[in-house]
Amino acid sequence: MTLQYLVFDFTEDTEGIGTFEAMASTTQAEAAQVEAEIAQVLAWANALFPLGRGELSAGADWDFDLQEPDEGAARRTFVVSISGTASFCEAVREQFALD
User: Mean pLDDT over residues 2-25, rounded?
Assistant: First the structure.
């Protein structure tokens, strides 16, 4: 699966939890395409990881946060953070060709 708008950066904490963060700033006309990419990534995560989204400390495989600051009428900025276990992060790297 190729992502056109979301370019993820990866960080990992000392407990093995990884976080992928991406930001996309687009015109209003392109915003629907960014929203579709976000939905595609989340649908993939929901389908592949049966423990699903939730608190990682409570045993979930992954969680996410989406922020969309108000940029006015001309642009929309999306900030996506997806955190997960080591196995989840490895699957994300493989699925979306992230190195």
Answer: 92
CA distances from 25 to 5, 20, 33, 68, 77 (A): 9, 17, 11, 10, 4
Residues 9, 99: Cα–Cα separation, whole Å: 9
Closest of 76, 44, 75 to residue 64, by C-alpha: 44
Structure tokens at 40: 């595609």
Query: Of 35, 21, 20, nearest to 76 (Cα)?
Result: 35
pTM attached to this predicted model:
0.87
Strand 18-27 to 75-84 pairing: antiparallel
Is 73 in a helix, a strand, or coil? Answer: coil
* Amino acid residing at 77: T
* 56 touches 17 (CB < 8 A): yes
Phi, psi of 43 (to 5 degrees): -65, -40
Beta-ladder partners of 44: none
